[in-house]
């Protein structure tokens, strides 16, 4: 029986073998489509819950936050990415982030530019702490519970930031919904070109686009659901939410069967 001390490379290989796959999906076209659909549901779903159950945004945030916590227990319990649990978590985080921002603005009188600043600082702080502890912000290295916690906390802040910034630009500035769609969609396109053609850092480009998909999805949701007199298409929050939830479910089932978005870990940034 050999008594040789295991090499670092052997330990890292064993870590990969135990986890097999990264805990978040590969960044494919499916990822971005579902992400935008989720952000749209976050906007229309939060509005729909508020109008249907006549509860305060704070109360709804507590309830949906509790459901989110249960879903995240399942997310953390599995050693690999499970599309159904992961995307259920993203939908719920989108709803919770919207409710938190709306509660601060509508019920506590906190101005949208203030909430944008607050959540902007919180998002930057979460990135700073995450990097200080783990030395990477790559989503290809979500292999430990601690990194999962950093990831999901950061995602929550990005959703809250995107909601506040999107509402501020679309409503407080009077830009309107369809113009906001063009604005945020154009910003994401610029980031994409900067990354693919001019070498913009991949991690920075990903998170910048990730933040911007929140106000993009919210603007799409508002444009489809709000009354025509307010610049929307008057589909209503109920219809819009069901359409997008159905589309999300169909795509998630497809990914569950095909497993085309499973992401292998990055061997260059594994935990020491």
TrEMBL record:
Organism placement in taxonomy: Bacteria, Bacillati, Actinomycetota, Thermoleophilia, Solirubrobacterales
InterPro entries with a match to the protein in the record: DUF347
Pfam families linked to this entry: DUF347 (PF03988)
Protein name, entry field: Membrane-anchored protein
Organism: Baekduia soli
Membrane-spanning residues: 60-78, 85-105, 117-137, 149-169, 181-212, 233-257
Highest taxon of source: Bacteria
Keywords in alphabetical order: Membrane, Transmembrane, Transmembrane helix
């Amino acid at each position: 029986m050999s008594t040789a001390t295991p090499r670092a490379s052997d330990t890292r290989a064993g870590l990969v073998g135990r986890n097999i796959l990264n805990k978040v999906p590969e960044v494919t076209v499916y990822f971005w489509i579902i992400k935008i659909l989720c952000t749209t549901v976050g906007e229309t779903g939060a509005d729909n819950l508020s109008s249907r159950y006549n509860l305060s945004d704070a109360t709804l945030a507590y309830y949906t936050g509790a459901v989110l916590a249960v879903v995240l227990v399942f997310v953390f319990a599995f050693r690999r990415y499970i599309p159904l649990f992961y995307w259920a978590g993203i939908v719920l985080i989108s709803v919770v982030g919207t409710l938190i921002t709306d509660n601060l603005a509508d019920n506590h009188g906190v101005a949208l530019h203030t909430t944008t600043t607050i959540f902007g600082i919180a998002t930057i702080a979460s990135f700073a702490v995450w990097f200080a502890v783990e030395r990477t912000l790559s989503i290809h290295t979500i292999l430990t519970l601690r990194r999962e916690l950093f990831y999901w906390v950061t995602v929550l802040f990005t959703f809250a930031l995107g909601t506040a910034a999107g509402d501020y630009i679309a409503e407080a500035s009077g830009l309107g919904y369809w113009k906001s769609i063009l604005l945020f969609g154009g910003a994401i396109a610029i980031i994409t070109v900067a990354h693919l053609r001019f070498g913009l850092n991949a991690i920075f480009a990903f998170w910048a686009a990730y933040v911007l998909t929140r106000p993009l999805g919210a603007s799409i949701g508002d444009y489809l659901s709000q009354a025509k007199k307010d610049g929307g298409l008057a589909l209503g929050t109920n219809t819009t939410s069901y359409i997008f939830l159905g589309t999300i479910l169909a795509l998630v089932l497809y990914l569950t069967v095909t497993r085309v978005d499973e992401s292998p870990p990055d061997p260059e940034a594994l935990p020491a």
